[in-house]
């Protein structure tokens, strides 16, 4: 099914950027929210993105105006009566998302796709609350949506195959890189990213390194920003919601460091609140130091050792589990990490990195970290199998990928 017109529910930062991406592809898009003030803010966000492109000489003012005109502001669900797809981008609460789809399902055409931009919630559960679970699918954009290339396409248990295929094609129309992800808690990228962020928090609360040292090590590895800078940009409140989903599904290996709760309770959510692990509008660094000191004082472990591998290897391990569970192929895992996280291009992706490092070395390091830090470093079953079979990666010409000698 070709998509001629789209709708976006939720005119916040994410919804507005999704609408901008659709308009930039030359398609009309309805941008709807509960009141005109929120819609106007969304339109202003879209205009700011286009103004930025004009200032950089990437498009003419006339072309920008034509694109902006494709965005149809609305506060009425009836404006979705002729759309081919509706993408919801409302707060990350299952009840809210279910209500949104229930309100529009009888208004949109029978063939319309109901897509959710959720970053972690169950597509199957969301679909079950509608009359058309076969038309419900995950379409997870990454923030900022007008910049990031990756879209995770997640079918639920009831999602029709053609719906997932249509969304993959639609994503390509939007000049994005779609990766199909079989449903699991956290999907693919967030499932890999959270152990990395969590280990950074453990390192900080155990006194292994400072915020700045940890972030600098991540950037030196080749990532676009460090874990604490990333959390400040994403919003600690958003990360908190994702962690709860992962913890409920995967248990102790996803148990969050206590440090997170100290910052969460202090409402230091990052840039959006003026301060997080770094000062922004709130320049009082004493608050940050006090929260870190409080976490360090109550930490059961102190003065542990820091290494960049301590952050990266939990991601490697989770990536292996995702391949093991057929969440995605090894190639798609690497593509998703390159396009969605900014994993260093020269390393070709996280599983190519593991192959280049040597799977025997990765296993040995995980086992050593498990001995020191516990179950969150327990090696994936298939990693042990690969090493036992001498599929050690690039040096053996075979690991998660095959290499010519």
Automatic annotation (TrEMBL):
It comes from Candidatus Abzuiibacterium crystallinum. Residues 5-184 form the 3-hydroxyacyl-CoA dehydrogenase NAD binding domain. Belongs to the 3-hydroxyacyl-CoA dehydrogenase family. Pfam families: 3HCDH (PF00725), 3HCDH_N (PF02737). GO terms for biological process: fatty acid beta-oxidation. One of its GO terms (molecular function) is isomerase activity. SUPFAM superfamilies: 6-phosphogluconate dehydrogenase C-terminal domain-like, NAD(P)-binding Rossmann-fold domains. It comes from the Bacteria. Residues 186-280, 306-403 form the 3-hydroxyacyl-CoA dehydrogenase C-terminal domain. Keywords: Isomerase, Lyase, Multifunctional enzyme, Oxidoreductase. This is 3-hydroxyacyl-CoA dehydrogenase.
